[in-house]
Amino acid sequence: MRIYFDNAASTPISEEVLATITQHLKESFGNPSSIHADGRKGRTIIEEARKIIANHLNASLGEIFFTSGGSESNNMAVKCAVRDLGIKTIISSQIEHHCVLHALQSLEEFQDIKILHVKLDKKGRVDMENLKELVSQNSKDTMVSLMHANNEIGTMMDLQAVADMCKEHGVLLHSDTVQTVGRFPIDVQETNIGFLSGSAHKFHGPKGVGFIYINSENIIGPYINGGSQERNMRAGTENTAFIAGMAKAYDLANLEMESRTSTIKELRQYLIDQLQSNFNDLQFNGDWDGQCLYTVLSVSFPATAKTDLMVFSLDIAGISASGGSACSSGVETGSHVMSTLIPEDLRKTVRFSFSHYNTKEEIDVLIGKLKEIIS
Ligand SMILES: Cc1ncc(COP(=O)(O)O)c(C=O)c1O
Question: Among the four 53, 148, 182, 229, which has the fewest Cβ within 10 Å?
Fold first, then answer.
């Protein structure tokens, strides 16, 4: 049996979610836009799913839209804010996920949007004084786009503090919450946020489906033109079964959040203890012992010929981990996050990321394999 420590890249689908999807693939094949009974059945399933997601976020039904995942949701937020809400300046960071980073680069290049980067420390923490300066210098045509938790090093932003700051200065806030929805409680009534994003495969749901929350005050037009699906905001026949599967996964993630969190925190701490007692000269990255995603531990090993091939050697030994983020090209190109934060660092970084399906026994196996690889 392989051991899977790459849950920040994607999570295994849960049995309950699989059962939900299979049932709907078999039984709910009607086009949700059709007016006959089979179509209406699909529509009901989609609206039930919307209700589950909206309830857990304390949002209203009209504020949740289904998408193909985190990348689409984040693109939709920043591009529609520019197109429809008059946004001309976006305050962001250099360690955002590529779907935000590259979307902003294209807005800068083709639409003359000003992109400002907030200062970060070596752990990837937002310099709140610098953010305040940037936010207060800019006004109504400004948006902040900052991720809630970094997928490579786990460092978390104080979302409530940033949301309060944006509210005080009348600045719109988008947050890439792909790594945190279903892992931390988020209440959009308490936290003043314009847009947030979710992706089902990060919380034991299927790939290729996600959602965006859009605060009802932000009136934007369609992101994909065509039919009037998703209240005219995103055309295309809905993936009924996967939307239902995502809602099931999100429901379980929220209902079981406490127990999953404590299981994963314990595993992460166990790995930290084992690494510290078995190896010298390791470096934990990000705000690992502070405000950090409990699912992620990024570790840098001294650069040697053996550690250079660490992810590959672990793979051969039956263990999946990652060199940084999941790379869409399948080729390891190095981490833009680590090279931004610690450019002088030549160490070899491995990201271990956990789910409640992992066990201490798996960590023991990992430690044994690491010893073999390094010695
Ligand atoms: C922080 C973050 N944002 C966005 C995405 C993209 O999500 P998706 O794979 O659903 O497009 C990911 C996935 O790796 C992520 O970790």
Answer: 229
